[in-house]
Design goal:
Layout lengths: L8 H17 L13 H16 L1 H9 L5 H6 L3 H34 L6 H13 L5 H26 L17 H12 L3 H8 L8 H26 L9 H8 L9 H31 L4 H19 L3 H7 L2 H35 L1
């Protein structure tokens, strides 16, 4: 099926970078595998390997038919299967958006406004972020380029300012508790990258090749994550694991000229990242719903996303136990395995068979 090319690979991976770095910036140690601090750096180093391996099924589909998205591939097996998968992916993307919103709500209610009702502001964020999906993929790509620059500036400031506070003794021995916790932690890092599944939907709408951009995005993301963890561990030490949001604590320690503390600027960058991620995953959700039920109800789908996210976020708002119940690493690992690896892998034989039929027909 023919798709309108709307975005360059650089713009797409700018969105991906902003969306995924938000997960790291809002990292919550208590929700992840308990490891000694230095093992987090090993997890980060294992991340690109896991990314490249897990993306192989999607890459194979893309190479087989670059002009088809995953639902076009499923359509060759059954139109009903295509619609079912579109709905399932829509739910997955909407769930990812909910995780991001509720994670930021937890940060705001615990660190920024612990004694205030954050509900109205939360609903405003959801309303604006979801509505921004209506501007389209290209506009979101241009905005993401600016946000990437701001993220890099913020990260550079924090590292430069805290450099005198680096303490080598804060690093713990590697694999003190064995290799298994480190591997499980690396899998958790991988499962937090729902952006990979977006390629199943977005790839045909990108002008240019995606392969090199994917590798570059993964490596730059690994570098940024590694730098953040290295800086946080070397400055905070054992204090890192006791913080609900250690990277905000790290920014609070930094002072730069007239800015005094960088945590306010850091929080502003978080909000921009959340805005981009919320708009992007709403756009993905709407794209899937239009595949399943028709293209005429775009505004209705966006409104539906706003309502669903708003109700769910208000129910979870300010309650760590409720948030932890939906943000368990095991859930994310299973979802990542299904939507990034298993579904594309199951569709691949049918796509290759269809291509073989087309070649035979062309010869005849």
């Amino acid at each position: 099926m023919t798709n309108t090319h709307q975005i360059s690979p650089a713009q797409l991976y700018s969105i991906f970078f902003v969306s995924r770095i938000l997960v790291t910036l809002t990292y919550i140690p208590t929700l992840n595998e308990v490891v000694l601090s230095s093992d987090l750096l090993v997890q980060t180093l294992l991340y690109p390997l896991g990314m490249l391996v897990s993306a192989l099924p999607l890459y194979a589909l893309y190479k087989a038919r670059p002009d088809w998205d995953l639902f076009d591939c499923a359509y060759r097996i059954s139109p009903v299967l295509s619609k079912v998968l579109a709905v399932l992916y829509a739910l997955f993307f909407l769930f990812t958006a909910l995780l991001s919103v509720t994670r930021f709500d937890l940060f705001a209610t615990s660190r920024l406004f612990p004694d205030s009702d954050f509900t109205i502001f939360l609903l405003i964020i959801i309303l604006i972020g979801c509505a921004a999906a209506g501007f389209g993929l290209e506009a979101l790509g241009r905005l993401s380029g600016l946000v990437v620059l701001l993220v890099c500036i913020t990260l550079g400031f924090v590292v430069a300012v805290l450099l005198p506070r680096f303490e080598p003794l804060n690093f713990t021995p590697l694999f003190y508790d064995g290799l298994a916790p480190t591997l499980r932690g690396a899998a958790t890092f991988l499962a937090g990258t729902a952006e990979t599944a977006a390629l199943a939907v977005i790839a045909p709408r990108v002008r240019g090749k995606l392969e090199k951009g994917f590798v570059k995005w993964t490596l730059w993301l690994t570098l940024a994550m590694g730098l953040l963890f290295f800086c946080a561990i070397s400055v905070l030490g054992a204090f890192f694991d006791t913080q609900l949001f250690p990277f905000h604590s790290l920014a609070a320690l930094a002072e730069f000229s007239v800015l005094q503390r960088l945590d306010a600027f850091h929080t502003g960058v978080w909000i921009l990242c959340l805005f981009v991620k919320l708009a992007f995953f709403t756009l993905l959700t709407v794209t899937c719903l239009r595949k399943a039920f028709g293209k005429k109800l775009k505004k209705t789908y966006i409104a539906g996303c706003i309502v669903v996210l708003g109700i769910a976020a208000v129910i979870i708002s300010g309650d760590f136990e409720r948030f932890a119940a939906i943000a368990r690493p095991e859930i994310m690992m299973v979802l990542f395995a299904i939507f990034v690896v298993l579904i594309p892998l199951c569709l691949l034989p049918a796509v290759k068979k269809q291509i073989g039929r087309e070649k035979e027909a062309a010869v005849v």
